[in-house]
Q: What sequence folds into this?
């Protein structure tokens, strides 16, 4: 089996897993509780359908396909940013003041990324819009990667009781950090056979890793960890009376 | 006021980290639209489109590495093989 065939297999496996997870969420009534996952999966499946249609009708080298590909990529990165913001909100569920802070941070980051992306196009005045889409999409991708790392650290620091949230954040981390690590390897081993293998196998595997982690988080991990039993409850009645006087 | 300044500083740090990461990890490419070092999100059976220079009145030839990264079930165009 050639590398391209394995790459195709992995890509379509990720595609099918996404559809399967979406069906699972809808059938088991998670559509409202985990709306951000449904939103992201619907966006991703819609993007794949749109790209396939445009590729089939206009061809790989057409400007229509180029515009469609990177516009849909931008939409998908924005959807992922919404998922990150939603996870931040879940993490700050018991701390509204922290959520106010995080909300301001997310808005400022989004505006700053827009400004940086626009001003980095000073030498491409003729294709500002099309190149801005790529710049903005790529910058937002890496900003989401940094924010996901911050989110994970925040969940550890704040000792968030929602175990499922921790697993969902891990899944998102695989999706963002995996390709970044692959790019780092690609950069270090430029021109080597290793970089080609990374492109063929590693990127689709990151997608599959995220979907499987989300699948596990939704189906196996409880939403809230059981609160530890209070010592007073475990103590006998006479001891409880003594404790209550202390 | 102190919270706003802290938020602004943290936002600047996040943006700087993101832009630096992108610059380092995509350092192989001098062209902003070079598909070889762009990262696309999500599983996509569709291949990355050719570089930005291909759009416009005089399309440049696609380098062989342009489709080296990312899943590409569809056949490559003749000039890329």
A:
């Amino acid at each position: 089996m050639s590398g391209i065939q394995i790459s195709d297999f992995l890509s379509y496996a990720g595609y099918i897993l996404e559809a399967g997870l979406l069906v699972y969420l809808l059938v088991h009534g998670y559509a409202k509780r985990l709306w951000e996952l449904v939103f992201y999966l619907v966006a991703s499946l819609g993007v794949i359908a749109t790209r396939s249609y445009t590729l089939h009708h206009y061809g790989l080298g057409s400007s229509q396909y180029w515009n469609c590909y990177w516009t849909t990529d931008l939409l998908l990165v924005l959807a992922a940013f919404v998922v990150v913001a939603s996870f931040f909100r879940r993490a700050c569920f018991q701390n509204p003041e922290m959520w106010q802070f995080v909300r301001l941070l997310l808005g400022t980051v989004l505006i700053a990324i827009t400004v940086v992306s626009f001003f980095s196009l000073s030498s491409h005045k003729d294709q500002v819009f099309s190149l801005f889409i790529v710049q903005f999409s790529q910058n937002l991708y890496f900003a989401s990667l940094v924010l996901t790392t911050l989110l994970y650290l925040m969940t550890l620091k704040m000792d968030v009781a929602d175990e499922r949230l921790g697993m969902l954040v891990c899944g998102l981390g695989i999706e963002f950090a995996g390709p970044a690590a692959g790019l780092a390897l690609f950069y270090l081993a430029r021109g080597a056979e290793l970089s080609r293998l990374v492109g063929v196998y590693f990127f689709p595997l990151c997608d599959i890793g995220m979907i499987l982690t989300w699948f596990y988080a939704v189906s196996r991990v409880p939403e809230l960890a059981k609160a530890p039993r209070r010592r007073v409850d475990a103590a006998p009645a006479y001891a409880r009376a003594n404790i209550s006087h202390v | 006021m102190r919270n706003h300044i802290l938020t602004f500083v943290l936002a600047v740090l996040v943006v700087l980290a993101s832009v630096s990461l992108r610059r380092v990890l995509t350092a192989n490419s001098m062209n902003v639209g070079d598909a070889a070092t762009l990262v696309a999100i999500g599983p996509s059976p569709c291949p990355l489109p050719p570089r930005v220079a291909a759009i416009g009145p005089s399309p440049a030839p696609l380098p062989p590495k342009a489709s080296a990264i990312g899943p590409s079930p569809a056949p490559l165009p003749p000039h890329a093989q």
